[in-house]
């Protein structure tokens, strides 16, 4: 059985070959190290660095509050986040891997690097736009299963109910293990029209219902 490392490498090589009008035939075992040896075939080496870093971190760190990981993520990719936020990496959207890397930079990175500050949410709209474009192009089908969920999360982070409903539908199809989480987010936005736990960060006034919700163990992010 191929590792997820191998499958991503094969996807990248096949995508690059197709872009050059060539058929791709796997030359035996292909890994991310193969891509490092063939930079002309890689979709984008920096995008692949971001994906590799995120995959190596794994689920144990993806959604944890870990100061050391946050610091490492920020130090390594702050320049890339800021470049992506300025639209300088827009060309990455032309491949599934590039689109995923952009979403990681614009949706996940701020939640680690700028935790607890308004800047956490500054590039959410950009990430949602890229996610919608990626789904329209079928990019989610080109990536390994465990990473597909990150195309859904920008919609699940939205305070727009239509985005939340779409996130639930997409999670049901491509990330069923995360369906309950998506439904919980949707239900919060359906009830309050927003995420109450963001109010203090964004200096928004909370309603009494929101205050009571948070005080009794409501979702705090």
Can you tell me about this structure?
By secondary structure, the protein is mostly helical. The chain is built from 12 helices and no strands.
Number of domains: 2
What name goes with the CATH superfamily of the largest domain? Answer: Tetratricopeptide repeat domain
Number of strands: 0
> What CATH architecture label of the largest domain applies?
Alpha Horseshoe
Question: Which regions are unreliable across 5 or more consecutive residues at pLDDT < 50?
Answer: 1-7, 16-32, 34-42
Largest sheet: none
**What is the CATH topology assignment of the largest domain?**
Serine Threonine Protein Phosphatase 5, Tetratricopeptide repeat
**Shape annotation:** globular
- What is the average per-residue confidence, as pLDDT, rounded to a whole number? 86
Task: Output the structural class.
Answer: mainly alpha
Number of helices: 12
- The H-and-E topology, N to C, reads as HHHHHHHHHHHH
* Proportion of strand residues: under 5%
* CATH class designation of the largest domain: Mainly Alpha
Strands, helices and their partners?
Layout: H1 4-19, H2 32-37, H3 45-57, H4 59-62, H5 67-85, H6 96-113, H7 124-136, H8 145-156, H9 161-174, H10 179-192, H11 199-202, H12 208-215
Helix pairs in contact: 3-6, 5-6, 6-7, 6-8, 7-8, 8-9, 9-10
Give a nutshell description of this structure.
With about 220 residues, this protein is mostly helical. It is built from twelve helices and no strands.
Keywords:
221 residues, mainly alpha, Serine Threonine Protein Phosphatase 5, Tetratricopeptide repeat, 2 domains, disordered N terminus
């Amino acid at each position: 059985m191929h590792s997820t490392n191998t499958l991503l490498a094969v996807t990248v090589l096949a995508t690059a070959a197709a872009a050059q009008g060539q058929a791709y035939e796997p030359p035996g075992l292909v890994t991310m190290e193969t891509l490092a040896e063939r930079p002309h075939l890689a979709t984008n080496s920096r995008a692949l660095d971001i994906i590799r870093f995120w995959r190596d971190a794994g689920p144990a760190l993806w959604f944890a509050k870990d100061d050391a990981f946050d610091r490492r993520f920020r130090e390594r990719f702050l320049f890339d986040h800021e470049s992506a936020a300025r639209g300088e990496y827009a060309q990455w959207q032309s491949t599934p891997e590039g689109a995923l890397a952009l979403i990681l930079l614009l949706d996940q990175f701020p939640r680690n690097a700028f935790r607890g500050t308004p800047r956490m949410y500054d590039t959410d709209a950009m990430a949602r736009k890229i996610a919608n474009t990626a789904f329209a192009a079928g990019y989610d089908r080109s990536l390994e299963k465990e990473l597909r969920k990150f195309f859904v999360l920008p919609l699940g982070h939205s305070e727009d109910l239509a985005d939340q409903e779409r996130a639930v539908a997409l999670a049901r199809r491509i990330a069923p293990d995360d369906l309950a989480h998506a439904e919980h987010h949707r239900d919060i936005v359906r009830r309050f029209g927003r995420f109450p736990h963001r109010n203090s960060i964004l200096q928004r006034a909370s309603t009494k219902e929101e205050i009571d919700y948070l005080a009794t163990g409501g979702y705090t992010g």
